[in-house]
Amino acid sequence: MELLSEYGLFLAKIATVVIAIAAVAVLIVNLSQRKRQRGELRLTRLSEQYQEMQETMAVSLLDAHQQKLWHKAEKKKRKQEAKAAKAKARESHQGAGKPRAWVLDFKGSMDAHEVASLREEVTAVLAVAKPQDQVVVRLESPGGVVHGYGLAASQLQRLREKQIPLTVAVDKVAASGGYMMACVADKIVAAPFSIIGSIGVVAQIPNFNRFLKNREIDIELHTAGQYKRTLTLLGENTDEGRQKFREDLNETHHLFKDFVKRMRPGLNVEEVATGEHWYGAQALEKGLVDKIGTSDDLLLELMKEYELVGVRFAQRKKLLDRFTGSAAESADRLLMRWLQRGQKPLL
């Protein structure tokens, strides 16, 4: 029995030492990561990817003898291209070669947290873009919180203000806040059955006051400022609060319409700012988009005159977040989102 007790104590000491070493190692790695960038910018040569795809398909249709001849000719061609590229690099001619089409992807969620990556991508493009370049944003979003999508639209406005041609391609949906972003573009290309529009504002909030009263639970809400809270989850809502809440929604809708009108002056905003959405072909008739087509066809067409370069800023996750999955933080965020949703109108 004494032997087992000593053995258990020995194992406990070993476990303590191992845990302490692991904790120190995690702390050191975490501190070292803090010194690094908060993310990583990744560029993808989309033109090369499309060309490789086309070549693969073309070669696959040839017989064995033809494939051998093709590979031989391709080897010679690439050798000549490499030699020409070296000569061009030595000459250091500014602006030599094809202009570039910078391709960004934005797949927006309700809280539009993806804007953190978008702002980095736009900043990176602005740092190197030439006057003959342009930007394509492949956009997919059903909308969300006003301040999030307002900031996202402002990031795209930075390109417009620098007079860099901007095209937004919508394959699935650009509604509400998503359309707020899209309308900043010089040209909007939408797939035939993509969902476009929904220029409106919505907010809803459950109220549990009667439920709590039936169980004799009192809720106290103290505010400084008459309209610090208009509608609440748990307290008793008033007609005055409801009226103020509706006024705020209407004001937000008015700002939304004014923004769309400034970005697309030829659009009859009053006709389309009803909160309705339309499919791509219908949206073209309404003037909400400029052309029907998919992002794939758009990029293939651009590839004839531009070098396509994909730009993506990948957020770096903290080491502790990778281990824990940020469960507690996610739970807190979800709770706060529900509590605040009634105070945050959605585009």
Question: How would you portray this structure in words?
Answer:
There is one protein chain. The protein has 347 residues and is an alpha/beta fold. Among the domains are: 40-66 and 99-198 and 276-326, 2-enoyl-CoA Hydratase, Chain A, domain 1; 208-265, no CATH class. 53% of the residues lie in helices and 16% in strands. It is built from 13 helices and nine strands. Strands 1, 2, 3, 4, 5, 6, 7, 8 and 9 form a nine-stranded mixed β-sheet that branches. Strand 3 (134-141), helix 5 and strand 4 (166-175) form a beta-alpha-beta unit. The radius of gyration is 28 Å and the shape is flat. The model has no long low-confidence stretch (mean pLDDT 84).
Q: How many helices in DSSP terms?
A: 13
Spell out the helices and strands N to C: HEHHEHEHEHEEHHHEHEHEHH
**For this structure, what is the CATH homologous superfamily of the domain at 40-66 and 99-198 and 276-326?**
2-enoyl-CoA Hydratase, Chain A, domain 1
Number of strands: 9
> Which overall shape is indicated by the principal axes computed on the Cα atoms?
flat
- Per CATH, the architecture of the domain at 40-66 and 99-198 and 276-326 is Alpha-Beta Complex
CATH topology of the domain at 40-66 and 99-198 and 276-326: 2-enoyl-CoA Hydratase, Chain A, domain 1
The biggest beta sheet reads: 9 strands, mixed
Helix/strand class: alpha/beta
Tell me roughly what share of residues is in helical segments.
40-55%
Residues in β-strands, percent: 15-25%
